[in-house]
Each structure stands twice: as structure tokens, then as C-alpha cells.
Amino acid sequence: MGGETPTQSKPRSEYPVLAPKPVGQLISDIYKDRISQFYARGQWEKNNLLAMMNEGVASGEPHVQLAVWDAPDQTRPTFEDAVSHEFKKTKVGEWFGPSWSTHWFKVTLKVPGDLLDKRLLELHWDANNEGMVWTDDGKPLQGLTGGGERVEWVLPDSFRDGKEHTIYVEMACNGMFGNAPGGDLIQPPDPNKFFRLDRAEVVAVNPDARQLWIDIWIIGDAAREFPADSWEQHKALKTCNEIIEAFELGSKESLKKCRKIAQQYIGPNVDSAKVYDSGKEAVVTGIGHCHIDSCWLWPFAETKRKSARSWSNQCNLMERYPELNFACSQAQQYKWLKELYPYVFERVKTKVAEGRFHPIGGSWVEHDTNMPSGESLVRQFLYGQRFFESNFGKRCQTFWLPDTFGYSSQLPQLCRLAGMNRFLTQKLSWNNINKFPHTTFNWVALDGSQVICHMPPSETYTAEAHFGDVKRSMSQHKSLDQDATSLLVFGKGDGGGGPTWQHIEKLRRCRGISDTVGLLPRIHLGNSVDDFFDRLELKADTFVTWYGELYFELHRGTYTTQANNKRNNRKSELVLRDLELLATIASIKDKSYKYPKKDFDDMWESVLLCQFHDCLPGSSIRMAYDESDEFYAKLFMTAGAILKDISKVLGVARVQTSTVADGVALNTLPWHRKGLIDISETEAAVACGHGPFLKLRKFKTSEEKPEVTLKKLAGGIFVLENNQLKVHVKDGLVTSLYDKSAEREVIPKGKKANQYVIFDDKPLYWQAWDVEVYHLDTRKELPAGKTKVHEEKNHRVSVVTETKISDKSHIEAVISLSAAVDGEQSYVEVESKVVWNETMKFLKVEFPVDVRSTEASYETQFGVVKRPTHFNTSWDMAKFEVCVHKFADLSENGYGVSILNDSKYGFATTGSLMRLSLLRSPKAPDATADMGTHRIRWAILPHEGSLGHTTVRKAFEFNSPLKLVSPTSSAARAALLDTPPVQLTSDSSPSLVLDTVKRGEDDEDVSRGELPKKKGQSVVLRIYDSLGGRARGTVATTWDIKKVSKTNLLEDELEEVAFGDGKFAIDLRPFEVATYKVQLA
Ligand SMILES: [Zn+2]
């Protein structure tokens, strides 16, 4: 070592000694802003990339000849009808309307000679509204959306012959989001909107220019959105600027050069689906989707066309983009397509078979989940899954409700019972108080059942497939400790549409960036939602859990808005419950009676459709409610006819009887029932028994000791009193409610129950949807007028009070107390007639009660949900208005008060104050929402003990009053009063509710053939534990049983159940929903 001479290193380049010129640093903001100028419209468009987008355009005659036929009024005629009319010449620049009208265009195209050999020929059609391209022989091909959104239809190669070719365009005079005036989407539609046909031209597109536009758009996004401290951001900015500098206006060669530069950032494969073949692990699964509200800012009738337009688009795109996978929900929309657009339905079916088009969701529509009854939720799945199975050979695995306003607590159980163990939503990202803490988690129902829930971190189901959407799929992911993967649900939505070619092209670049420079989460297209969940399922045991409802901290007004529609929902659910029970009995009693399955299907499909998440919640325009009113009217008419037929079979005359001796009471509730029933203007009978028909005896009372009395004290106080309760009413208010057996006052001293209160109701934006927290600060008590005697009968007394709300609105409320029936809890009933003509006011009624608890209970589907009565945390406070079904209850140890209702869904309990929400008056999107007269009933039910079966049963009874009927003969009477054909025996746990009795869907005498028929007759029973404890019981039937099975909601037999002597035992876990299929011999 040592002694060597050190050698000088030679210079490796010709690095000059002297600096040749000053070089400045790139000023980031300015260079970034320059990027969009390269493809911006306006002052630059003639000199930037846009100037090279087309290689030629042909418009006007002879290349584009237009003729039109205007469909009368608001009709939506078929193709055959439309083309049978005479068309008159028209041209670009003409106006068409008014709102909701339809215009059919005969479009004759002749491609000019100089465009015949161009690479890509399209028809560009823009009339600023929705349209559909049809072939001249009546095949619907593709939807069009105006305003530049989806205006291109690719001409078939057969049009490149220089000859004339005819197509038709069906124009719908509404935008994607209806016909709101001005820029405010939710304002009631302007009935007089007209639409200008801006463009109808044949365009030869320059594909290089178009591709370069997408290249620089996405690289530009990387420059704008990647963090400034990343080299990836700086390289993006550099690349964009190099592209801009390489561009030469008019030079097709320069386009190719620019695209070559772009490849440095996005890689070489973005022009095809090959970009997804790099084999590198992706974390984001992109899935095309198209959310179509079944009604909203447009009527149901328009949705039928929206589905056809949107889904045709997707079938077209799938032919051009092999990576496009598309998921779409709502069996109802598929059914409309099948009936009205068989050509499109067949195309969809082909794509389903290819595994590209994915029916998803398993439900009839994307329904509200707060208000439908338990059985309605069951039928959403039953009708949905049966449709998917019978039409596509497969049931869905994922429940899909990206846009519904909150998710009730039993859904995971019902999903599992409907063959689905996955759930997708994202609406909770709209919470305006608390941020929901998870992206991927196990969601657990009241009974402990779980589903894997994923909420796409991009927080949208209508992603524009922007660079930012892909980026947020990681940056907003809240469950990275467990799993980093996510779904990106992209495509135009709400009003329909679905992915556009731009979306798919953009995502190719995003993938290219991930594989070339990195940093952006790697996206993959080509998989299904099921593939995504399949992988999650493998590690689902590591996911965090969320127990109970997914309460949505917004749209709380939707429990109340459009009261009539909600009332119809409750009434039709009850009617269907009654009819299915009675028709089941009739069809087994008399084999010649045909169980009216088609009618039931039609009725259920109407109910389920009206539970759509903008219909039942009250957030649609008037037109939609005019339609739903018609659906319900038809339903109640059909119900009347069915009941008439059943009555004949059972030996019942529908006329009311005035003598008790031969009358019976119709009771559809499944427990021993005892109650009063009016038999004439003045008299009542006591109905008592178990089963669908109850014996009557005359209600007797003596002069000396009447069962219920009405007294007037000094100071305008009325005292209504029976054996159990003593009620003081002054000026319409309940100032005292004394429970004699409990020896306790229900109303706190100095407080008044049944107090009407009114609030200012001006939410931040979404009028029909939202009631905002600050409305509570505007509470005003409505002073009532004088109370008068209304009724003084032996079995019932009542007083009436009129309360003025304003010059335009008032309430007439009857407070009544009936004679107490031994062994049955008595309650105070209120029936209100409200004439309501307010603007942005919220009417509620209050019940301060002398009960203390930090939690109140609310009936929900198949159970009870508890919610805080305090505002400890922001999560507690967010629940200042919640959903209720038939009862809300506030109980402390040993005692409680329930408020029953017959058609309401909004409630709040704050401290010891219970408050039932009655009516709202939003002016958008329906300016007439809830104006008019309403009849609403509720009751104050005090009870000993905590919440128990008394409340559950009285709430059912309050909603299902006994009906007086007379048998056709004494023999018929005896048969009616015989042992009920099916019942829960009296020693069964009282928390059990036999909620549904229906015939098996596929019984050979019932089936409509959509799925294979099954031999023999069967009866399906749905029983649940209503109170949250282990519940045992016995089902007894007089029918001759061959076999009993426990099934899921889809009536698949899961396990056999032992039976003997017409009986079988049941044992349910807390809040379990159990379905049994009883096969008859
Ligand atoms: Zn929606």
C-alpha cells in the first residue's frame, strides 16, 4: 500500500466552464394554469387542441335531413305509433317543447364523399335534453344527453356508402335532472320549458386529437393534484408543458409527437384495455354504474325511458371497451325494460351472460329503509331476487343502496336471509355533523347477524372517473389498518346515463400513471363488485364492527314530508298483511278459490316501487305523487275486490250488523284480543278471542256505575275517566293523566300533553329532505281554543278542541277515552283533522311525561331501536329527529309511556319530552307538498313495567282496528269462530309476533311460473321476537301437516322442523326473524 500517484478523474461531459444563458425556475402556478388553456373552449378554441378535434363536419341538407312529429300533450308513444304519423320538415335551431313533451325526429344521413374514409364517423346531436337513437326498423340503440354530456353516436360502417340512411331520434323534453327553472335543481319544474336543437351533424373525429386531450387532461390533473413535494407532481407539470410546446396547430404529425411525450408519464398502453394487463396488484376496483332514481325530479313514466337509454349506452360501450364492467340495481327497472324495450333487454341479457353487465342489489328498487315495514323489506328482497333469478339465472350477492337516506338496524339480518352477505352504500359521507369512521367494516344487526359493508372512499356513486376520484380512493380510506382496497363507482347518475367513453379513457390513463410513475393508487377495471367483495370476505374477521342502525345525519325531514304518501304506505302494508292471511285460509279451505297471486304481486310491486328512496321519503316532484296516488288508489280498489271474493269463500257478508247475536269481529292480529267495537251510532260490543274472527257480546253498563264518564269541572276542565285512567283536559291540552292501578301521575306537574307546537323549517338547502338542528330554537306553542264535549256514550267519551295555526290552517282534535276492558291496557286516543296551508313550517305535538331515562325506544322493522334522549355528544345530538314506526316509548324501571301512531314516522325524545312530528311544508321540489287536509291518529299509552308486549300489541291494534262483519249463516258463523287455522299458542312468549301468513311462492296452485313449481300446498309463516330476548313458543295449526321447514326469506328450505299433533316448537334468539314453511298433506 502507498506510494501510488493519485490519478485525476476525467470530465464525463462537455460541461462548459461559462454559463451560456440564465435559466429560471419553472413558476409552478403559471405553468399549471397554462395546461387547461391548451384544451379550453372560448377564446383559445380556434388555436388550441380543440381546433384539431375534427377532420370534417357535415351539417344541413343533403347530408343531414330532419323531419319531426310532435307527440300530443305529455304522451310517450311507442316507436310503431310514432312512425305511423306524418313527419314535417325541421332544422337545427328550432325549439321544441313544452316540458315533458316528446318529439320524434326522422334523421336522414348521407356521409359526404370526402369523409367516407375517415377513421371515426359520429353523429353529434345536442338538443339540451334527453334522447334515444332508434334504427329505422324500431331498434333502440343509444341514449343521448344534451348540454354536451353524451352527444355522440358512432355511425355504423354500413353508412360509409355515400347513400342515404335513416334513423330516428326520440326527444324527451326534460334534462337529465328534469325541468327545474334556472340553475336551482330542486325547484318545482317549469311546465313551459323549450329546448333548442343546437347540433345535428356528421363529424369525422380525429382520434389522435381526442386521445391527446384525455392524455393531457389526466397528466394535468397529476400536476395539479399530486403533492408539491413529490417528484411525480413536478414530472407531470414538465410533461404537460413539453406536450404544449410540441403541439403545432394543423399538424397531424405533431399530435403523434405530443402523444409520444405523454407516454413518458402514462406509459405506452393507454389506447387499449392492455393497460390493465401489467399484472401488478391493484387496490382500487373501478365499476361502471348508473344510478337511476325511479322517480325524483321527473315522473316514474320517464324513468322507464331513462333505463332504456342508459343501459343501451352501456351495451354499446362494452363493445368498444372490453374492460368495462357495469353494475346496476333495481329489478323494477329491468322489468320495465323487459316489457317496454325487449330489444334492449335481450342485449342486456347477453351482456349479463358474458359477465359484463351485473344485476346487483337483490331488491325491487333502491328503497328507503327507514319507513317500510319489516315485511316490506322482506318483499323488496323476495321480489328482487326472484326477478333476478328467473331472468338471469342468478341471485345477487350484494345489497346495493348508495343513495338511500340511512339504514335501519335489521338490514344485515334480512340481507343474510335473502342470500346476500355484502352491502354497499356511501350516503353517510353526506352526514353534516359527524364523519362516519369506517370505509370497510362488519355491520351488525339487532339479532347479531352481520354483513360486510363497504363505503367507497371516493364518497360518490356517480364518480366522473377523475384523477382525484382515484386518488381519494386511498387518501380518504378510513379502514387502512385492515384493508386498503376499495371500489370506485363511476358513471353519470341520479338521472341515469352511466359511464361515458371519457370516463373509461381517463381511467386507462390513471392506471398507466400508477404503473409508469406510481404514487396514484393502482386501479383495475374488468372485475365485478362480487370479485371485490370475494377478496374482502377472506379477511372479514379482522374488520371493525358497527352495531345497530347506520343513522344518516341529514334528510331527517323525510320521515314527515308527503304525509299522504306515507299514510298510503302504512295502510297498504296493513291491507296486504290482512289479505294474504285471509286468502291463505280461504285457498286451503276451498280448493276452488284461487289465491290471487297476480293481484298480490301487482299490489306488492306498487307498494315496493313507492318505497323508492325519493318517493316514500317525500323528496320527489308533484308529478311523481300524482302517479303514486294512482298506484295506491288502484291497490285499494283491488284489495276491496279480493276481500269480497274471500268473504264469499269464508261465509262472510261484508255488511255491518247491528245486532250482536250474529255478528263477529274480523281480527287479523295473532294474539288473544279483547276490545270494544262500535256496532251502531250509540252502542258497542266487546270482541274477545283468538283468531281471525272473534265472538261478540254486548257491552253493558249500568247507570249507577258507568264504565267511562265525562265531567266538566270549573275553569273549563273536562275529566274523562274509566277504571284505569283519569284524564284532565283543558283547552285541548292534557293537564293530568292519572294511572289508577299504578297510582301515578303521567304528566309532570305544571306540564301539558298533546300540546301542538310549530317550528320555522328552513333547512340549509334540501327543503323536502332536511329539517335542520336550529329549527328547535324556533318552537312556538299553539294556543288552543275552548274545549267542548264531542261524544258522551256509554262506552266512549270525547272532547273536541279547535286550534288555530294561522288564518289558513287549523286543527280540530278529538281526545277520547273508551271504557277500559278487563286485562287490557287503556289509552287516551287523539284524532286530529289538520287543515294545513303553511309555508316552511313544521307541526308537531308534544307529550311531556314523568319518566326519566337516558334512552328512548322506537319501533323499527322486526324490533326496537334505542336512541339517546340527551345531547351528550355530537353523535347523540345528531339524532334530534328520528324514525319511528307504530310506537315510541320512554320507560324507566317499572313504568313507562308509549306514544302510538297510525301513519307517522318522525319522532324525537329529549329528556322527558316526547314529540311526534305531524306535518311539514317545504316548497321544493313540490311546492304543494302536504297542503290540504290530513287525518292523523295517535294515542298516549301509559304502562306498568318497562317496554313490553303491551305496547307492541296495542300499537298493532291501534293500526288494525277490529272490523264488524256478519256471517252468511249460522253454520258459517260457527265455522268462523272455530279454532283458528294457525296460531301461536297462548303459552308462547308474548314478545313473539306471527307477522305474516302467506302461501308458498311456488306452490303449484299459486305459482305464476317464473320459477319451477312445487307440488302441493304450503303456508309460509314469518315470526319475530319483537322485544330483544330469547323467545320460545309453539305454532299450532288445524291444517294437516306433511312437513315443516325453517326457510330463509326467499323460501329456500334450510332445515326440517319436528312437528306432531299439528304443532311445532320455535325458539328464537333476540330480535330474530324466522320464516317457516308448512307443507300441507
Ligand atoms: Zn337516488
UniProtKB/TrEMBL annotation:
The keyword Metal-binding applies. One of its GO terms (biological process) is oligosaccharide catabolic process. The keyword Metal-binding applies. Keywords: Glycosidase, Hydrolase, Metal-binding. Coiled coil: none annotated. Its EC number is 3.2.1.24. It is an enzyme of class 3 (hydrolase). It catalyses: Hydrolysis of terminal, non-reducing alpha-D-mannose residues in alpha-D-mannosides. GO terms for cellular component: fungal-type vacuole membrane. SUPFAM superfamilies: Families 57/38 glycoside transferase middle domain (SSF88688), Galactose mutarotase-like (SSF74650), Glycoside hydrolase/deacetylase (SSF88713). GO terms for molecular function: alpha-mannosidase activity; carbohydrate binding; metal ion binding. Residues 553-632 form the Glycoside hydrolase family 38 central domain. InterPro entries: Ams1-like_N, Gal_mutarotase_sf_dom, GH38_C, Glyco_hydro/deAcase_b/a-brl, Glyco_hydro_38_C, Glyco_hydro_38_cen, Glyco_hydro_38_cen_sf, Glyco_hydro_38_N. Degrades free oligosaccharides in the vacuole. Belongs to the glycosyl hydrolase 38 family. This is Alpha-mannosidase. It comes from Immersiella caudata.
